[in-house]
Structures are given as structure tokens and as C-alpha cells.
Amino acid sequence: MAFTLQFTKGHGTGNDFVLYADPDGTMPLTAEQITAICDRHFGVGADGVIRAVRSANLDAGAAALAEDENAEWFMDYHNADGSIAEMCGNGIRVFVRYLLDQGLATLESGDTLPIGTRAGVRDVQKSTNGFQVDLGRWKLDGGEPLVRAKELKVARPGLGINVGNPHVVLALADETELASADLSYVPRIEPEPIDGANVEFVVPHDPLVTDGVGRITMRVHERGSGETLSCGTGVAAAALATRHWAGAAAPNQWRVDVPGGTLGVRMFATQDGEHVGLSGPAELVYVGTLELG
Ligand SMILES: N[C@@H](CCC[C@H](N)C(=O)O)C(=O)O
């Protein structure tokens, strides 16, 4: 059936998304439609598509409402290849900006907007640099798999970290090595994670810590989207991995430079264990209409 899709294009530090509202959950897109929309030559061009659905109108939304009855909106996230991802740290900030822009939600400074995701409910607040999101409890995941990327001469051990979605973080020697990694190829991970993983390549700044804040630079190859200018959950995983490698004296506050800008990461204690938070900008850049058949 042919239909017209009103969409908004947005990004968080250059990680870009096509967003549309489907409150009743009656307009899911097929993987083929998502791939076509995300194509940078023949479509709109994006790293992913985000559908705003009322949690009550989506099967996956039931778990969100059971966790928090105030999680009215569900972020239905798909990568550029049409695959589903559990979470998106840049996407959720842009999603909240979109809900506010569309008049679908309100959020005063200091208040919290709970958003349903496949990783669970995530709380978003306004911050000085845009929005901040509590990515919840993180965990070490999958040990230290070997990662091979084109132009890196040897396979290196990474660190598996789950922040709602799966990541493998790899430390590189310096900026030259970071720049030379060819991320137009999918990095190989051994053993291969069943659900795949996003792979982050990280270089610590020298000094690593300035004024109590850890600093790293990162590039990423995203599962289902390829190299992107930024990945919010990847930035959080990269800061967690670097703190892990740096030892007990490492800080809980980090700034992470990615090709598309800079994001903030904070680790903080809660009653149910340590959480990781992410902060950064969220921009809406244009609106459009797509005729889909
Ligand atoms: N860019 C996102 C992550 C999007 C999902 C990821 N590609 C996956 O498959 O897990 C972010 O900002 O976190």
C-alpha cells in the first residue's frame, strides 16, 4: 500500500537519523524501505531510522510500560541496513528533541522524560550541552576478543562492553594509527559475537586526565551502519574501557572526541549498581516528505 511519510532529519554529533511519528504503531517500515531511505546517494541518507510509537501500541513497548508506566513513547530504532538495535545514545537525544519539537512531549529543565527502548527504559534530561541520558547499568561482556581491521597490521585484543547494545573497544597507539584504520571494511572479531557488535577504536590523550576529566579520541564502525561520525553508546563504552585499562585512579568523568564533535560521559553510583550517563547536542536539520510504495 502506498503512503506518504512526513519525516524530520536530525543528528547528534553527526550521527544522523530519519525520524517519523507513528503514534498508533500502524506504519512500520520494511528493511528494504529503511535501506532505501538511508542510502546517501539514492535516498535521504542517514545512519538509522527512528520511529516514534506510543509504547502502548507496540509489542516491545509492553516491557517498557511494565518498567515505568510513564514511558509513553518508544524509540523504535533501526540501523541503516534495516536491522534492529536495542539502543542508540545519540539517537535517543535526537528522539527527545523531536518529540518536543512535534509537541508530543514536554520536558522542563531538571525534569526527566522516560523513553522506552529495547534495552529498557532510559531517562533523558536537558543539559547545558543539549540532553543527557542515563544509559543504565553497563557490563563487561564477551571477554577480550581479537579484532582485525584493515590497515592495522596485527589482530589486537579488545574489550567487550554492553551498555544496552554490544560493543568491542580497541586501544590504538596514536592518532596516526587511528587515522590509518580503514573502517570501510567490517572489522573482524574473533570469536565472532552471535549478535555482532559495534567496534570502537580509541586513542588516549596525553595527558589522559586534565582537571579531573579523562580525554580520549575515538572512531567507530557501527553494526548495521558502517563507519559513522559518532556513536553515543560507543563513546560510553570507550570511556568505560579506557577507565578499566587505566586502573583505580582513573576518573569517572570523560570527554570523548569523535569525528563529528565531542560528547560527555559520566559514571555514577546508584542503588542498583554503577550507571553510565551520556551528554551532548541534538539537532533537527530539515523536514521532508517521502512517497513510499
Ligand atoms: N549510533 C548509535 C548506536 C546505533 C545502534 C548500533 N549501530 C547497534 O547496532 O548497536 C549510538 O549513538 O549509540
From TrEMBL:
Give the record's GO biological process terms.
lysine biosynthetic process via diaminopimelate
Q: Which PROSITE patterns match?
A: DAP_EPIMERASE
Task: Please provide the record's keywords in A-Z order.
Answer: Amino-acid biosynthesis, Cytoplasm, Isomerase, Lysine biosynthesis
The entry lists its GO molecular-function terms as: diaminopimelate epimerase activity
Q: Origin, by domain of life? A: Bacteria
For this UniProt entry, which segments traverse the membrane?
none
List, from the UniProt record, the residues annotated as the active site of this protein: C88, C88 (proton donor), C231 (proton acceptor)
Query: Site annotation (Could be important to modulate the pK values of the two catalytic cysteine residues): which residues?
Result: H167, E222
The protein's Enzyme Commission number: 5.1.1.7
> Which family, according to the similarity comment?
Belongs to the diaminopimelate epimerase family.
User: Which protein, by its recorded name, is this?
Assistant: Diaminopimelate epimerase
Instruction: Give the organism the record lists.
Output: Mycetocola miduiensis
Output the lineage of the source organism.
Answer: Bacteria, Bacillati, Actinomycetota, Actinomycetes, Micrococcales
| Originating gene | dapF
